[in-house]
Amino acid sequence: MVDIAQSVTDWLKDILTGIPVEYGQFPNGDGAAQAMLKAAPGEPWVLHYCSGGGIKQFPYEVYLQTRPLDEQERIDGLAMLRKVQAAIEAGGAPEGVVVYAHDVTTLPSPFSVGEDGVATYQLIAQIKYRV
Asked: What's the superkingdom here (predicted)?
């Protein structure tokens, strides 16, 4: 059986090239940008088959942190998450997963700005897949 969290994390690494991505926490890097994937609240099962298996869903949140020095870098942070949005809307999905649907549920948007100037952006999506 596929570890959906790991599969989506690996898929994000392919899209966000050059940006470290981890599941459940931000990478321990001092780079200009870093990303985290985490599960969003939601019911995991959509449909159970009497014969076994079924359709599950994995709602997830992608957080991207940047240290923008000016407005252009802030826009670039949003642009990075828009790459993920575009990949989802183009039918992109992790390899090895039989996908029924992959949708963006919340568009990329600013999430927070820390006192140290670190800006965090968020995108929320959901993938439905066969098990």
From this structure: Bacteria
User: Helices (DSSP H) in the chain: which residue ranges?
Assistant: 4-15, 71-89
The CATH number of whichever domain residue 29 belongs to comes to 3.30.2000.30
Domain enclosing residue 107, as ranges: 4-130
pTM more than 0.70: yes
Number of domains in the chain: 1
Which residue from 38, 40, 33, 41 is spatially nearest to 16, judged by alpha carbons? 33
* Amino acid in the structure at residue 104: V
Which tokens hold the place of 118? 């670190």
Residue type, 32: A
pLDDT tens, position by position, 74-130? 668 899 999 999 999 999 999 999 999 999 999 999 999 989 888 999 999 999 999
Q: Are strands 119-130 and 54-66 parallel, antiparallel or unpaired?
A: antiparallel
Q: Report the pLDDT value the prediction gives residue 2, as an integer from 0 to 100.
A: 81
Beta bridge partners of 119: 66, 113
pLDDT number for residue 37: 98
